[in-house]
Amino acid sequence: MNREFPEGRDGAENQPVRASDPVAGGKVPHLKLPLTEKLPEVFFLPGDASRLRLFEEEADSFERIGDNREYALAKGSFRGKSFGVCSTGMGGGSAEICIVELARLGVTTMIRTGGCGALQPEIESGSFIINSGAVRWGGSSNFYVPPEFPAVADPFLAVSLAQSCEKLGLKYSVGIGATINSYYEGQGRVSAPGRRPRWGEEQIARLTESGVLSIDMETETLFTIGYLLKVKTANILAVHGNRATDHWLVDYEPAQRSLVKAALETLDAV
Ligand SMILES: O=P(O)(O)O[C@H]1O[C@H](CO)[C@@H](O)[C@H]1O
Ligand SMILES: O=c1cc[nH]c(=O)[nH]1
């Protein structure tokens, strides 16, 4: 039974709410915004909802417009350009919902602004990575297209992000990342004392040998599903730690703040 509308009918429209497309009260089911909402065309997607505060502190104006589950939403402006922010939560499942519902609400450009682990030893914690493409182990996108379908960033958007880093004097690397929908064993971390993360250890070694720069949990989901939904996508990731040197940045807020500045700077070019 639909608890919000006990007879399974849409309270606003008095239409049956369909399980195959549960838009109730004219709102998308997870972001809880009406389909009529006028949103900015460009959205930044951090994983962590608490990072909206960093956008708020850098923006000229900022208005929170949604907060449901892991999805915190806001719209704002920076030097006369409007933008939105929506947290994706962690991993392919929650990112898919965010991307699909934002696209349905008319968002045409989505830039992931997140954190990652670096794989190459020379990449310093606190620096930045822009992925030109990503290995597709994020989970959800496999239900859309076969694994041979590439996950690539919009090249123009990726270049704009690199130019923003240059302008702000931020150290950055550009190249292929891997999205792995598991933080512990999938990324070669110990999930319980004495338990070896065999799959992760082996794959992380192969990715590192192949020159892959980073691992995160959402990028390929955005690149692949975004492409299929005709959304321009790119990412910029702060390096929270390095798996080759085993260095971990305990306080990564300063890096995330610089990342937000670089992301907002890119609004001039999109
Ligand atoms: O810092 P965010 O954007 O959340 O990104 C990274 O951090 C989380 C894991 O700690 C995953 O979401 C991963 O992709
Ligand atoms: O090592 C890391 C750091 C951030 N996010 C990840 O998914 N992995």
UniProtKB/TrEMBL annotation:
InterPro entries: Nucleoside_phosphorylase_d, Nucleoside_phosphorylase_sf. Residues 1-25 are annotated as: Disordered. Residues 1-12 have a biased composition (Basic and acidic residues). Its EC number is 2.4.2.3. Transmembrane segments: none annotated. GO terms for cellular component: cytosol. Residues 45-246 form the Nucleoside phosphorylase domain. It comes from the Bacteria. Gene3D superfamilies: Nucleoside phosphorylase domain. GO terms for biological process: nucleoside metabolic process. PANTHER family: FI09636P-RELATED, URIDINE PHOSPHORYLASE. This is Uridine phosphorylase.
